Please model this.
Amino acid sequence: MGIKERKAREKEQLRQQILSAARELFVNEGYENVSMRKIASKIEYSPTTIYLYFKDKADLLDFVCQETLLKLLNTLEQLKSEISDPVERLKKSGRAYIAFGLKYPQDYKLTFVVRPQFQEGLRLQEGSIGKKVFDYLHEIVSECVRQQIFRQVDIDTTGQVMWSAVHGVTLLLIDFPDFPWTERDKLMDAVIHTTIEGLKA
Model:
């Protein structure tokens, strides 16, 4: 490995170290209570070093959330290549979405609860990773309507209904783990099944 490649690798490693420290502090102390100085102290670098990689704390939060959304998108895209039937893919995608949130609860809440409070909502600009996640759902719903599996419904509204269902159960399971839930898989399947059945033609 040459000097140029080694420096590039070291730069990326430090960047990831900064993101990991920021993620941990945002989760444990609350985004509003974390400063760039505190993040720098955690990794034993000067704040000036962090500013070489990220312009401010909001930029750091954005990158942390983009990484989470990319991981979620990759999880869903894998199902797209494995399952051709749109209803089955919608069911599996709903399950995968909830499972993702439960596997990475703090990252999920940073992305869908914390960031919208301090930035411009979910930031679904054209071409953004967040927009691609929602477009994935939109595409499946569109195919269900095209194949006349679903009623001729407004696709945007229907996609939002599906997201509301899986997002709601994800947050409830994260925030209220001590609630006497029914068996978790049974609950997840019931929410997804009931929502889909209500949309069928």
About this structure: The longest helix spans residues 3-29. The domain at 1-54 is CATH 1.10.10.60 (Arc Repressor Mutant, subunit A). The chain has two domains: 1-54, 57-197.
